[in-house]
Amino acid sequence: MGSTRWRSSPQQxxxxxxxxxxxxxxxxxxxxxxxRTYYVTFDPDLARTRDxxxxxxxxxxxxxxAIEESLEEPGxxxxxxxxxxEIEAPEVGALFNYELFIGAIREDRSLIPVYVxxxxxxxxxxxxxxxxxxxxxxxxGIDDExxxxxxxxxxxxxxxxxxxxxxxxxxxxKAERVAEQDRLYEAEHAxxxxxxxxxxxxLKRTLRHAAQTxxxxxxxxxxxxxxxxxxxxxxxxxxxxxxxTQAEQERxxxxxxxxxxxxxxIRLELVQAAAIVRVPNHVGP
Length: 285
Prior knowledge:
Elements: E1 3-8, E2 21-23, E3 27-29, E4 36-41, H1 44-49, E5 53-55, H2 61-72, E6 80-85, E7 91-103, E8 108-117, H3 124-132, H4 144-218, H5 224-260, E9 265-280
Parallel strand pairs: 4-5, 6-9
Antiparallel strand pairs: 1-4, 2-3, 7-8, 7-9
C-alpha cells in the first residue's frame, strides 16, 4: 500500500484557526493551522522506515472522520467502477482484492484480485483485467446508488465465493513458497556457516600468535623493557579471546534466528472491495 497526502492552510481569521475544515470530498476533521503537507499510510512497515509518514488507522482523527462520514451517508464510502469489456450487455459485479503475505526466510507479498458477479464465476483473470483497466466515465443510465443497492443484496454470497477462491490460491502458493523457503534456508545456513567458520579460524590464529608472543616475552629476564611490553601483549591476548567469544556467540544467535524464521507464516487479508460495472466497449462515451 502506498501513502496519501493532504495539505492544510492557515485560516484567514486567527480566532478560527482550530475550527474543522474540509478534507477531500466533504470530509471534516481538525488539522493544525500551519501550511504543511501530511503523508499518511496504512502500511506499518512503511511508517517505521519513514519519519515523515504517519501511520493511519482506527483511532486516527482523519480515518475516524472518514468512517463517521460514510456511516452518516450510506453508500458514500463505497466505490463504483466502470470498466469496458468484450461483453454483449452491461453486467454488475464486485472486485475483491486480497493481499497474500508469506513470511519466512524472505517475505513475499502479492495481490490476489477476484471478480464475482451473478452470471460470472469467481475469476482471477477477470480480476486482473479489471485492475489493469483504465477508469471510464459512466454511460447513461448508470446510477451509483442503484448499483450499490444491487451489489449489497448479494454481497455476502459474492464475498464468500471470492474468499473461497482466494483461499484456494493460498493453498496452491503455500506449497510453492514452502519449497522455495526451504531452498533459501539451506543456502543461507550454508552461507552463515562458511562465513563464521572462516571468521573463527582467523580469530583463533590471531589469538594463538598473540599468546605465543606473550609467552615468549614472559620468558625474558625481568627488566624494564619486559615490564613495559608484557602488559601490552597480555591485553592483546585478552582482546583476541573476547573477539573469538563474541564471534561464536554471534554465530549461535544468527543461526538460531535463521531457524526461527524457517517456519512459514501465511496471512490472507481482504484489503479492498469495489462494485464493478462491466459495459460493452461500444456503449457510452
